[in-house]
Amino acid sequence: MTAAPPPAELLGVRTAEPCVSYFTFFLRGLEDGADPQAALSTAPKRWTVLAGPGGVLFRCATTDFHPRVRLESWSGEPPAPPGSWDTLDTVEFELFRHGKVQLNEWDGYPSGEPVDLGGPGAYRLRAASLGRVAAQERHAAGEMFFHGTEEWLIQLWPR
Known about the structure:
Elements: E1 10-16, E2 24-29, E3 49-52, E4 55-59, E5 66-74, E6 87-95, E7 100-105, E8 115-116, E9 121-130, H1 132-140, E10 147-158
Parallel strand pairs: 5-10
Antiparallel strand pairs: 1-5, 2-4, 2-7, 3-4, 6-9, 7-8, 9-10
């Protein structure tokens, strides 16, 4: 009988509140050629999470605000996040030279500290978001650059 693999271990957690422009923030590998924004040229009309070269784009419900983002790195596939989420998506992406990633605002400014995933290779990413309707309502009421309301949980693990 084959032994079950050990459960995935949470390796690290980072939190950030990136400034969202054009409805978007992204996770980018800290290496030459990492340009997840390039995926927009072939993106479907509706998307929430989109993998691109060396990273992943995240589409928020509105723009010009700061969502709460929790970024988790795991040794293997983590358990599904508990609770009710507005969106839940899983994508794969690849890092070619380094294993470090960082959240970035649309204009490329870093948001929070880098995360070391352990080296180059293929990774999976699960992203869950909530509070999207409330964020849209605040923006529609004329609020801009508010913090919170929309929240993201982003989990990363090796493929």
